[in-house]
Amino acid sequence: MLEEALSYATKNRERFLGELQDFLTIPSISTDPEHEADMRAAAEWVSSQLAKIGMQNVQILPTEGHPVVYGEWLGVGDSAPTVMIYGHYDVQPPDPLELWSSPPFQPAVRGDNLYGRGSADMKGQVVACLKAVESMVRNGGLPVNIKWLIEGEEEIGSEHLDSFIQKNKALLGCDFCLNADAGILGEQEPSITTGLRGLAYFELKIHGPNKDLHSGLFGGIVHNPAQALAELIAGMHDSRGKVTLPGFYNKVRKLSRKERENFAGLPLSNKLYRTQTGVSALWGEPGFTAPERLGARPTLEINGLLSGFTGTGSKTVLPAWAMAKISCRLVPDQTVKDTAAQMRAYLKHKAPKDIRWELTYLHGAGAALVSDDSPGVRAMSQAMKTVWGKTPHLLREGGSIGVVEQLQRRLRVDSLLSGFGLPDCDAHSPNEKQHLPTWYRGIETLIRFFYNLG
Amino acid sequence: MLEEALSYATKNRERFLGELQDFLTIPSISTDPEHEADMRAAAEWVSSQLAKIGMQNVQILPTEGHPVVYGEWLGVGDSAPTVMIYGHYDVQPPDPLELWSSPPFQPAVRGDNLYGRGSADMKGQVVACLKAVESMVRNGGLPVNIKWLIEGEEEIGSEHLDSFIQKNKALLGCDFCLNADAGILGEQEPSITTGLRGLAYFELKIHGPNKDLHSGLFGGIVHNPAQALAELIAGMHDSRGKVTLPGFYNKVRKLSRKERENFAGLPLSNKLYRTQTGVSALWGEPGFTAPERLGARPTLEINGLLSGFTGTGSKTVLPAWAMAKISCRLVPDQTVKDTAAQMRAYLKHKAPKDIRWELTYLHGAGAALVSDDSPGVRAMSQAMKTVWGKTPHLLREGGSIGVVEQLQRRLRVDSLLSGFGLPDCDAHSPNEKQHLPTWYRGIETLIRFFYNLG
Fold this sequence. Notes:
Two copies of one chain form a homodimer.
Chain A: H1 2-11, H2 13-24, H3 36-52, E1 56-61, E2 68-73, E3 82-88, E4 108-110, E5 113-115, H4 123-137, E6 145-151, H5 161-167, H6 169-172, E7 176-179, E8 191-196, E9 198-207, E10 213-214, H7 215-218, H8 225-234, H9 257-264, H10 270-277, H11 290-296, E11 299-308, E12 317-318, E13 321-330, H12 336-350, E14 356-365, E15 368-369, H13 375-388, E16 393-397, H14 402-411, E17 415-417, E18 433-435, H15 436-453
Parallel strand pairs in A: 3-6, 3-7, 7-17, 8-16
Antiparallel strand pairs in A: 1-2, 2-6, 4-5, 5-18, 8-15, 9-13, 9-14, 10-12, 11-13
Helix pairs in contact in A: 1-4, 1-15, 2-4, 4-15, 5-14, 13-15
């Protein structure tokens, strides 16, 4: 049955690719109200695929925003786990259009790659899952129970998914989630993302005089709130790059030797990061490598600054207020609550008495970390090892993914992140592409993964 | 002749007030292209007044923006000085209209005050000068030579006046300028402004990664330019509020005991400043009083900050760049050139090597200070003493006035600042008003001033 499924997948590659191309022609841009009908069309495309491959209870379920596509196949019963497959059918806007070599919604194969908006992020991954499941269904059936949660708002923050999950707890119950909205580290570098950092996002506003003042008539007697803000921000790191909020590192889980070895084995060089970012030198907390700092160490970043006059030229204003957007990336076992308290304690202690500060907590979530030893990670790791001939890297990444945190918080469901985009796939950029040999390997990997679980 | 002129001014008060009201009905808002015709009407109103009171060579002269009104009376010849009277016929926009108790361009007398846009700033002062000169012309003639320079762009920065002055050096030659665009410290507190601070205005841009990065995927390995900017700004003052640019205070002229006594005698309390600004406590360089810090000490102010995401809500961006508008107010004998070099030296020394900084000098001017002993100051001081029965305060103010610096730089002409608005006149705000008893005293003062010079 496994072998038949694999052979079916190989034989049907061209058709699979054609169906992905079909899906890619729908400009399902979730952020743009003009594409409302395309969003609907994309949801219907997914639901019709689910029905076609034998899924049951297929529904397009409303949310306060774009709908969720649901489907399930629970025929194995209690003898095998229930895996939720998460994906999204929306894509990023294609601008700037003039930088595309072929039109973003007219998918085109050039060399080993399929070009088009959504080819990698993540219609390609959704179709890989659909085709893996189809291959199994058509060749003896599924070895595990499956639920599908394919949303339409990932590219705009999954804002309405949270309440959808809350309202559909029973429907969505499962053992763990396979989140295919990820990639691997390289064509020959299979990887599974097992950890994500959390987030605590704040807005800090410093209030000075009751209106913008003339910097000549009042400069020298009033504490400038932009200066006070800069001083407060400057004090949030020490000279070496460590965060100085009191107690910030207290609950940070130490890296084990095994974890550090794992980080050291990742094919992620400082040079690669320099190339990706365009900086001349990396920066950060001393004592940790770049991948460790990104995956396993917390940060405090300034995401935005605004005060006074910011147009072209000059205006001699002493601003009434200054604002910073500040966010901390959190790692196990930090909490949003602690971090907010630490930020408040810092400001209480450090803010000059002649200004007023106002800290607003905007949103956040704790870090997510799946045990390397969980059944899902083991099954995926084994599958990748079979397909690539090498054990995949286990990654802890620096970002935070809404649905991962929502599933964790609402359903206590862990997510395993695995998809088959490559680092140079240009998700969110012009000429987004899916490397096709990796995509076919992905379909094979997914089939093996489900069999390993069953 | 002095007595006749004074008596004429007293007898004609009602007509003078009527003419001022007439002038105030013209909505000469220089910043608003829809008021082009009103700007022309205001210039013509001034030129026709100049002609009516016997001025010669009266012209409306074009600039690259709104025209300048010129007129002269040079009948005394070399036996007496030539005084330029500077003023402007443009006004600030009247918004927010709903806060006015009577329409801004329908001048209304209530109690001792005349309400209307421009009543204090500065059509009231221009008409005071016109009526003082008329009173002398009608009663034996002028004791000094006079030139008029009445511009139409003061409220939008006198941008085109500089090249106008440069192109008309011969026409505008004079001994000193009486700039009536000022006020006195209180109804019973006559004052003359003898000093203004200079300015050196910069834009500092910190370049980090080559694009906005995801703060999760890259936070912790890239120096955040907003943080680097904050650190650089924080280092520009010490903990007590002194500017730390190397050499910043080297050339600052020390205050003499007499100057400090003069500052101490000004009716300017910390409480007044707190009320004006709404701050709970004043701030600034230790060792100097608030009026000293404003008038005679240099500052470094942050005029604006911009970086990353500044909208409502949150965006997890690690910004590609961060920008600050930074300006120094300068005092004698600091120079713009030195200050720019000090800023550069500071940045060269302090900026982290992993970021790139870019400093743009936008504009500036040295400080202006008229000797307390100059003929103009002596003549005005004596006139005020006669009218108010007390010696006026000599003020050094914190702002910079375009035309003062332009006349100094282009013609080596000092300006004496004297006008008759009061601190609560609400220039630039709704319900702008001119205190009429002070205005009549102002006309008398101006007549005496010219006689003292003659």
